[in-house]
Amino acid sequence: MRILLVEDERALADGLADGLRREGYTVDVAYDGAAALTRLATIDAELMILDRDLPQLSGDAVCRMLREQRHPVRILMLTAAGTLDDRVAGLDLGADDYLPKPFAYVELLARLRALGRRAGGAAGTVLEAANVRIDTVRRTAERDGRPLRLTPKEYGVLESLLAARGGWVSTDELLDEVWAHADERARAVVKAAVHTLRRKLGHPDPIETAPGHGYRIGAAS
C-alpha cells in the first residue's frame, strides 16, 4: 500500500517515513501542501497522512481541494490542535480520520490499517492473497479454487485479514470488527476462530502470527 506523507517538520516526516517503510508500506514524502498536490498527481497513493499546519498551502486547503476533485485518496489529518471542535472541523473538510499531536506510533499504525481496509473495500468486492479469495458481496470464500465453508465469525476474521493487504491485525481490532467488542476476557474466542480458520484453509498455512502484532496474511497478489 502506498502512502503520501505530508509533514513540514522534516525530522518527524523522515522518521515516520522510515518506520512505515519497515512496516511494509511504500512511502512518498512532501514537506508542504503545494508539493503534496504535485506529488499526488504523479503517484497512485491510497492513503495520505496530512499535517494540518503546512507552508505554501495549508492542510485544510489541500484536503478541501482533493474532496472537490473527488480524489479517492483516504486522508488521515494530523494537527497539534486536538479539541473536539478542531476534530469536527477537520472531518467536515473531508478528512477520513483525525489524529492529534503528539500521538503514539502504534495508534498511527492502527488508524492506517483501518483506513487501508476501508480503501481496499472501496476498490472492489474481491479480496485475495496467498491463493485465498473472498467475494465480500456474495460472502463466499475459497482457497485454490476450493470453496470454504466458514462460520460468520471465521469469515469475518478472514475478511479483516485480507482487507489489511499484508498488514498486521491485532486481536483487539478483530474483536472490534468481528465481535463488536474488545473485552479482554474474550480474547480466547479470537484464538479459537483463527485456529479453526487455519484448519479449514489447509496447508500451507497462510496466516502469520507475531506477539505484539497479531495476525496477517501475506501481501495481496
Describe this structure in words.
The protein has helices at 10-22, 33-40, 59-68, 84-92, 105-123, 152-163, 171-179, 187-201; strands at residues 2-6, 26-30, 47-51, 74-79, 97-100, 126-129, 132-135, 140-143, 146-147, 207-210, 214-217. Strand 4, helix 4 and strand 5 (97-100) form a beta-alpha-beta unit. 36% of the residues are buried. By secondary structure, the chain is α/β, with parallel strands linked by helices. The longest helix is centred in the middle third of the chain and has 19 residues, at 105-123. The protein has eight helices and eleven strands. The protein has two domains: 2-122, 3-Layer(aba) Sandwich (Rossmann fold), CATH 3.40.50; 124-217, Arc Repressor Mutant, subunit A (Orthogonal Bundle), CATH 1.10.10. It starts with a strand and ends with a strand. The strands form three sheets. It has a five-stranded parallel beta sheet, with helices on both faces. It is elongated, with a radius of gyration of 19 Å.
Morphology call? elongated
Rg: 19 Å
Determine the number of helices (DSSP H or I, runs of at least 4 residues). Answer: 8
Q: Give average pLDDT, whole number.
A: 85
The proportion of residues forming helix, as a percent range, comes to: 40-55%
- Output the CATH class name of the largest domain: Alpha Beta
Helix/strand-derived category reads alpha/beta
- From N to C, what is the helix and strand string? EHEHEHEHEHEEEEHHHEE
User: Would you identify the CATH architecture of the largest domain?
Assistant: 3-Layer(aba) Sandwich
Largest sheet: 5 strands, parallel
- State the low-pLDDT regions, or none: none
Kindly report how far apart the N and C termini lie: 12 Å
Number of strands: 11
Question: Looking at this structure, what is the CATH superfamily of the largest domain?
Answer: Response regulator
CATH topology of the largest domain: Rossmann fold
- Report the sheet-strand fraction: 15-25%
The domain count comes to 2
